[in-house]
Amino acid sequence: xxxxxxxxxxxxxxxxxxxxxxxxxxxxxxxxxxxxxxxxxxxxxxxxxxxxxxxxxxxxxxxxxxxxxxxxxxxxxxxxxxxxxxxxxxxxxxxxxxxxxxxxxxxxxxxxxxxxxxxxxxxxxxxxxxxxxxxxxx
Length: 138
Fold this sequence. Notes:
The protein is an alpha+beta fold. It is built from four helices and seven strands. The longest helix is centred in the N-terminal third of the chain and has 11 residues, at 10-20.
């Protein structure tokens, strides 16, 4: 089930985020996002266990996805797809995101869902290029 996050989810999101990047807390100060309307955080739960989340920002008619994370043991169950689809249902004209060139599973998901590369950021992720991708939804 996908739902908007609450303050009660903070610790779990931080724990999951640290599995993604040990410096997650340095990059995402989620307490600042709670009452800020430009941020949206949705979580995915299975049997009342939070197993994934998506963090995005809303800028005029565009949503920028900052991070999608699904716990390793729950991957390959369409959770990332469902989280992306939940964002695509919003009333915006396009979605943008960036992904490391060597993150093949994520890039494959974005390709499958109709995102296309609009630019590159050379050596953005510790020497690996970032691909900026976009999907026009309206």
